[in-house]
Prior knowledge:
By secondary structure, the chain is of the alpha/beta class. It is built from 9 helices and 6 strands. This is Glutathione S-transferase C-terminal domain-containing protein. Pfam families: GST_C_2, GST_N_2.
Amino acid sequence: MAQAQFQAETSARGEFVRQANRFTGRVTAESGSAPGEGPDEQDRWPLEAGRYRLIWSRACPWAHRAVIVRGLLGLEDAISLGTVDPIRDDRGWRFTLDPGGRDPVLGIEFLAEAYLSTDPGFQGRVTVPALVDTVTGRVVTNDYPQLTLDFSTDWAPLHTKHPHLLPADLRPEMDALMREVYEDVNNGVYRCGFATSQEAYDEAYGRLFARLDALEQRLRRQRYLFGDHVTEADVRLFTTLVRFDAVYHNHFKCNRNKLAEMPELWRYARDLFQLPGFGDTVDFDHIKQHYYGTHPQLNPSGIIPAGPDLSAWIS
Length: 315
């Protein structure tokens, strides 16, 4: 069996088993806490414009989806944004892009500092996105699936744009599809890339391309996943697709074919890329630097590939 990239997240069978999200607080107008206070007894933080800071990596698909939704809903002034370096060392995500190597709002050098301030006993992998309270320096949540849903619902009083990313009449079908896409595609590429046994890799690979084939068929009859209107489901799929040919195809051995060789998915991904909030939040340099530069078990040389030619996204 191959050496695991993340030993604590690898099963005895060689499967990558993603760690649970440690912090699951929520920002909502329903919080029992007054402005400026911490969470209530149900871990609900008060809704306040300008109080919370979203920490992301331009490389990370989970964080990318949060930034896209933040922008689509017009929450940029309500939620500030901090960006970490694409290269994550053994101390985790770092703020070396900022002057002095510190986040200018939180005053910390590593995101791990906010994690440990919130839970001094935390020993897991520090992840983005993380929504951090600027008053206490504590992490409110790193629960990326719930975070974007909350942006559409609990943060509604602060929206300046109203794209209806979660239509009520579609929620049951959307939730089911987003769950399938997460299991087989969003997390599926990682289950391929971080598998340490042939059996685990083969299973993940089969599920990934079976789901992509099903999505290819679905998109033959409509522009987006749920018709002619962009929804949360499209955001979640896009952030994986936009990284597919640049990193997942080669680095994670998802190489049955490239995204560019699946006509409907390629058309769909390029369509989304042209929309405000999608392509303008993609940074292929950061994406490649991170994946090829921080997974030594997969790429021991650390060499970052020059390709692919990314001009097709905008042509």
